[in-house]
Amino acid sequence: MDHDHGYKNLFSHPEMVADLLRGFVLEDWVAQVDFTTLERVNGTYVADDLREREDDIIWRVRWGENWLYVYLLLEFQSSVDRFMAVRIMTYLGLLYQDIIRGGLLSSFNNLPPVLPVVLYNGEPRWTAAQEIGELIEDVPGGLSKYRPSVKYLLLDEGRYRETELVTLRNLVAGLFRLENSRTPEDVSRVLENLIAWLAAPEQASVRRAFTVWLKRVFLPGRLPGAEIAEVHDIQEVKSMLAERVKEWTKEWENQGMQKGMQKGMQQGMQQGMQQGMQQGMQQGMQKGEAGLLLKLIERKFGTVDGAVRQRIAKATTEELEIWAERILSAATIEDMFR
Question: Whose CB has fewer CB within 10 Å in the chain, the N or C terminal residue?
Fold first, then answer.
């Protein structure tokens, strides 16, 4: 089971969607939502050009007398998608087409509101525009008023600090804490919370989803190559961590060191490339300035000898700029070099 399917399995449970809205959408309208009405919407719909999308999680919930839709897009790529806002606009258009075809309009015969959420857990922090208008060139003269306006809610897991999450009695906060954990002890503390929060019999399904995700996605990702016993409950995962904490802590630290070294090497290579490019550009500009100055000298004073050519070739950018100013008033080459 890959990371995408593990998350899709978790967010196929209404408890997870309810906690996502309660804990991470800090807006007044959430208080008016009837979470007992949460129901999953078929995530497969076909556009007019017959292209299908099956990778989305769509829920709807009663908001007053009407339905409100939550469009959840899980993003697990290693790089940030600069044009995510364009994708969101396209997906919303397809969803609204499906709503129109199904006759699922509001009591006022309007389209229902949709909350688009991008849940991201990649290593680099998310920097892409969250509003489609930011990606469109601003043209003066009135054309900008036709620019579309579509915004999505970004949940970048890596931006949340432990101090923010630990105070929340929230399943999604627990998920984020697990993803951001650094040691087996951190994981054990979160598992204690999840065991307590998911103790009720009616929560057995989401408890099982967490167990499957821990066993098939989370632990293999943190401990590649390690032998992980078959587990059937979160409590068994916690017990397994306690039994092998010393062994796994060492493996965990080694994995962290390897990631740190890889990240350091990547950053070093990027810095080296940037420095190389800057140095190359500077050398190119300097060579161009030297060639131009030599042409000006020969035009004013005639052909020069090898010593002058060598001096110009070895000159710094500052020296070339000074000599280029002096050549306008210099009577001889010596005056220019003075």
Answer: C
